[in-house]
Amino acid sequence: MKFMLMMNVPRDTGDYQINQWTPEAFNAHIRFMKDLNRDLTRSGELVDAQGLAPPGRAKVVRFGKGSAPVVSDGPFAETKEFLAGYWIVDVEKAERAYEIAAKASSAPGPDGQPLVIPIEVREVLGAPPPSEG
Predict the structure, then answer these.
(1) What is the pLDDT of residues 21-55, one digit of tens each?
(2) Is 42 within the bounds of a domain?
């Protein structure tokens, strides 16, 4: 079973609050994330993991006239949280995805204490089988 684990953080100013942390706190956080990814790679559970650019660099794209993309600035102003990064894991049971999400949620913050970041866990649904005919 594949699951996407999505790390959502408060929007604040449209940039990552982590950019305001001390270098020591920032490095401890990144080291935690790298260690988590290494452990998931070793266990064969990691499919992909990526951090994402902040909302200030995001764009919203819609279909336009003549098939040309209509591009506007990123997420809507009322967004209270934004997706900072994600993991896609391939595990035997949903409970294992929850364990991994809880571990990710415990990433250290600026004071070294767990951030308790909310991690949304959603099953990745496979494509339906091709229709015959």
Answers:
(1) 899 999 999 999 999 999 999 999 999 999 988 77
(2) yes
131 domain-assigned: no
Q: In angstroms, what CA-CA distances link 114 with 7, 9, 26, 28, 78?
A: 14, 14, 13, 11, 27
- Provide the 3-class DSSP secondary structure of residue 129: coil
Expressed as residue numbers, the domain containing 26 is: 2-123
**pTM beyond 0.85, yes or no:** no
- Please indicate, yes or no, if residue 111 is contained in any of the structural domains: yes
Residue 39 tokens read as 């452990």
Please tell me whether residue 44 adopts helix, strand or coil conformation: coil
Distance CA 107, CA 116 (A): 7
CA 15/CA 19 separation, integer angstroms: 8
Q: Residue 109 domain-assigned?
A: yes
Instruction: State how far the alpha carbon of 85 is from the alpha carbons of 4, 5, 49, 65, 128, in Å.
Output: 10, 9, 7, 33, 27
Q: Work out how many domains the chain is built from and give that number.
A: 1
Q: Say which CATH number the domain at 61 has.
A: 3.30.70.1060
Q: 124, 108, 126: which is closest to 116 by C-alpha?
A: 108
